From TrEMBL:
The name this protein goes by in its record: Biotin carboxyl carrier protein of acetyl-CoA carboxylase
This protein's UniProt keywords: Biotin, Fatty acid biosynthesis, Fatty acid metabolism, Ligase, Lipid biosynthesis, Lipid metabolism
GO molecular function terms noted in the UniProt entry: acetyl-CoA carboxylase activity
Domain Lipoyl-binding as annotated: residue spans: 63-139
Pfam families reported for this sequence: Biotin_lipoyl
Gene: accB
Domain of life, per lineage: Bacteria
Role according to the record: This protein is a component of the acetyl coenzyme A carboxylase complex; first, biotin carboxylase catalyzes the carboxylation of the carrier protein and then the transcarboxylase transfers the carboxyl group to form malonyl-CoA.
UniProt organism field: Dorea acetigenes
PANTHER family listed in its UniProt record: OXALOACETATE DECARBOXYLASE ALPHA CHAIN
Pathway: Lipid metabolism; fatty acid biosynthesis
Organism ancestry: Bacteria, Bacillati, Bacillota, Clostridia, Lachnospirales
Gene3D superfamilies assigned to the protein according to its UniProt record, in alphabetical order: 2.40.50.100
Length: 139
C-alpha cells in the first residue's frame, strides 16, 4: 500500500461516521478506529510500511548489513554529548561497537560482524528499531 493511499484512507475514515475499518493489501494490514470522535491509526502500521520499504531498498545494495538483534531504541553514541560510535565513512573492524540498542533499561552494544567501511546508517539516533531491522551497511 502506498503512503499516499494510506493518508487518503485515514482522511476518509476521519470524515465518515464509521467507527472502525480494517483493510489488507499486499500483506500489509491496516486497522483504523475512532475513539471519542477522533480517528486514530495504529502507528505500527506506518512503521511497518516504512520498514518494509527500507528492507526492500537494502536488498539492492552491495555489502554486509548489520541488523538489530532485538527490539529497542537505537543510540549512535554512548551519551548525548559524545561522538557517535560510527558514521558514514568510518573504518570498522569485526567486534567494534557500532551503536547501542536500549531494551528494557539495558544498554546492548551492537558490534560489527564485518571489517570494512560504514557506507550507510539506516536509522537515526533515538529511533525505535525492530528485531532484524537493518542498522548499518558495511562495504
Amino acid at each position: 500500500m502506498e503512503f499516499e493511499n494510506l493518508l487518503t484512507l485515514m482522511k476518509t475514515m476521519s470524515d465518515s461516521t464509521l467507527t472502525e475499518l480494517r483493510y489488507e493489501e499486499g500483506g500489509v494490514k491496516v486497522k483504523l478506529a475512532k475513539q471519542c470522535g477522533k480517528s486514530r491509526a495504529v502507528e505500527s502500521v506506518l512503521d511497518t510500511i516504512v520498514e518494509k520499504e527500507n528492507i526492500e531498498e537494502t536488498m539492492d545494495e552491495e555489502g554486509q548489513i548489520v541488523k538489530s538483534p532485538l527490539v529497542g531504541t537505537f543510540y549512535a553514541a554512548p551519551s548525548e554529548d559524545a561522538e557517535p560510535f560510527a558514521v558514514v565513512g568510518s573504518q570498522v573492524k569485526k567486534g567494534q561497537t557500532l551503536a547501542i540498542v536500549e531494551a528494557m533499561k539495558l544498554m546492548n552494544e551492537i558490534e560489527s560482524d564485518y571489517d570494512g567501511t560504514v557506507a550507510k546508517v539506516y536509522v537515526e539516533n533515538g529511533q525505535a528499531v525492530e528485531y532484524g531491522q537493518p542498522l548499518f551497511l558495511i562495504v
